Amino acid sequence: MMALALGMTAAAQKKTYTLASPDGRLVTHITADWEGMSYDLVYDGKPLMSPSRSALYCSSPKRAVYGTMSVKRALQRTVDETIASPFTRQTTMRNHCNELTLKLYEGFSVVFRAYNEGVAYRYVWDGIPGVVTYEEVQLNFTSDWTATAPYVISFDSTRHEIQYSTSFENHYTTKPLSQLDPRRLCFLPLMVHCDGGVKVCITESSLCDYPGLYLHGTDESGILVGEHAPLPRRVEQGGHNNLQLIVMEREDYIAEMDRSKVFPWRIMMVGTAEEIAMNNMSYLLGEPSRVDDISWIKPGKVAWDWWNNWNIGNVDFNAGINNDTYKHYIDFASRYGIEYVILDEGWSVNGKADLFQVVPEIDLPMLVQYAKERNVGIILWAGYYAFDREMEHVCQHYSQMGVKGFKVDFMDRDDQIVTDFYRRTAEMCARYHLVVDFHGAFKPAGLNRTYPNVLNFEGVFGLEQMRWAGLEWDQMRYDCEIPFIRQVAGPMDYTQGAMLNGCRNSFHPSWNEPMSQGTRCHQLALYIVLESPLNMLCDSPTNYEKEPDYTRFVAEIPTVWDETRVLQGEVGEYIVTARRKGDTWYIGGITNWTERDVEIALPVVDLNIGGKTTIELYTDGTNANRRGSDYRHATFNSPLSTLHLHLAPGGGFVAKITAE
């Protein structure tokens, strides 16, 4: 058996192809010769990346093939189409790029696309079955610029297996590329800060039945290289509540190919911070939808139990995982028009990994019917192994009962087996009209386009961490980083909505009565700044009921939008985002621990609603720097052309603008 490698013959003639974006500002030069394939990245005439190698090494037991990078045929075309993008930040997206396909040999092709917003490439395999032993990914930046990168959580310099098992939740490390620890893996997305305010954000899309990409430093100036988790050979049930599959042995290759295959798109987004935050390439490069009828898919808000630890008051029963408590959550959701209640971990018997063993304190059919009568849907939490072992039976049974979806948790890997599990879960749930929220999950990578019933992904150091993490974790800076980095991959289940809000001198972690870092208006603004088609109200109904007008405002904020614009911001500092639903605009802004003043020119959102407008405004209160829950609420008719707003340390604001 011989290696099938993209490269390695001196006889191959060197060929260079140039591909430019539709506006001509972004150019890549692709070279194929005996050393393999390489590409660069040039923006407005300035090189951002020097030639960077890419190669795919495969082997086949059925045929010995030794290939070269000799290009047999080059095809170019322009793509310019409008695609539907339901359940996202906008109703449609323009897919506009120039494309170059290089037909190589023995069924291999490589496809490059140049958008105004970035460059992407992928391999395509039309050949015989085999395995991928290694994929070479190299990113050679032309200077030792600073990177903002998330390391995997667990680290052992002698055992990469520990790093391959991660929940993809960590704060960012910001260092020059040469100072990123070469022993530690970084998961995607990852951002590089180039000169002149230009950013390059790296991620991938169309990730299915293939391991996810990690990057790590090399100690060399400006160079990152890729790595993939090898295919698991043997797994054992274990981990959290016996709900995970722990890898005990791995193969010496990363993926198996039993049919024709398209590989993931490697994406390099390019632009200013605001442009990166608006980049749609991850969604555009996902495979087209395989769900013909999406009328049953309902995004919306969720009254969530786990974060507030089922801790409700002013009731005459013991709160916990029982029928009375969940009826209370359902009644709360119904009063405020909240679409769903999640039954999180604990409704099925712990440690059994069996979703048909319901705890005796729960009458699930009764609760589903009780919720249905009040126009509330029930979503069930499920551990990875418990869901996978009887997937179709679980989906069929609970769909027939009237359950609306599943929150699937604790995969904590992205090798080929797990990425295929995501696809199978999405497909099976679509068959039974169930929505999906992936937790313990890697970033979105196009699956939400292919299966629009996949509404949300975790893969973020979200508010749940505030139950145990102290101020050593600067959540305010992190909140101002993720809209520019993590969110470019797609929606995230950050689970905002805290009603107890801590300043720097008052925040503390608490298991039973958790609080947020930052102000109340910071929490409120996260409903605008962050994208979550399935969005939580994480706090206790008891706390929300104390402020019914505020709670009603939160519950009425849309979770999907007709139009979105990032108006201003700096990575890690602050961001202001405007979103439109129908004729109503919401504008939300957050800051890190630095207080600041912002000005918003209202014409920049092109209100187009005619006549006078009504502005409903939530801003940090005068004492929000000492009392995080302090806020001001005002409604006024205004011909204002500019909003002048002060944000407290860790603060925020929300403006709702409607026609009179």
Strand content: 35-45%
Gross morphology? globular
Helix content: 10-25%
Structural class estimated from helices and strands:
alpha+beta
- DSSP E strands, number: 38
Radius of gyration: 25 Å
Give the terminus-to-terminus CA distance.
74 Å
Mean of residue pLDDT?
Answer: 93
Summarize the biggest pleated sheet: 10 strands, antiparallel
Secondary structure tally, helices: 13
Residue stretches low in confidence (pLDDT < 50, at least 5 long) are 1-12, 62-68
Summarize the structure.
The chain has 660 residues and is of the alpha+beta class.
Explain what the structure shows.
- Helix 4 runs parallel beside helix 5 (364-373).
- The longest helix is centred in the middle third of the chain and has 16 residues, at 416-431.
- The chain has 13 helices and 38 strands.
- The model is unreliable at 1-12 and 62-68 (pLDDT under 50).
- The strands form seven sheets. Strands 6, 7, 8, 9, 11, 12, 13, 14, 20 and 21 form a ten-stranded antiparallel sheet that branches.
- With 660 residues, it is of the alpha+beta class.
Q: Topology of this structure?
A:
Layout: E1 3-5, E2 15-20, E3 26-33, E4 36-43, E5 46-59, E6 73-84, E7 92-103, E8 108-115, E9 118-125, E10 130-140, E11 146-149, H1 160-164, E12 173-176, E13 190-193, E14 199-205, E15 213-217, E16 223-228, E17 232-238, E18 244-250, E19 255-257, E20 261-262, E21 265-271, H2 273-277, H3 281-284, E22 300-303, H4 323-335, E23 340-343, H5 364-373, E24 377-383, H6 384-389, H7 391-401, E25 405-409, H8 416-431, E26 435-438, H9 447-450, E27 454-457, H10 475-479, E28 501-502, E29 516-517, H11 520-529, E30 534-537, H12 541-545, H13 548-556, E31 563-570, E32 574-581, E33 584-591, E34 596-601, E35 613-620, E36 631-638, E37 642-647, E38 652-659
Parallel strand pairs: 22-23, 22-30, 23-24, 24-25, 25-26, 26-27, 28-29
Antiparallel strand pairs: 1-5, 2-3, 3-4, 4-5, 5-10, 6-7, 7-8, 8-9, 9-20, 9-21, 10-16, 10-19, 11-12, 11-13, 13-14, 14-21, 15-16, 17-18, 31-32, 32-33, 33-38, 34-37, 35-36, 35-38
Helix pairs in contact: 4-5
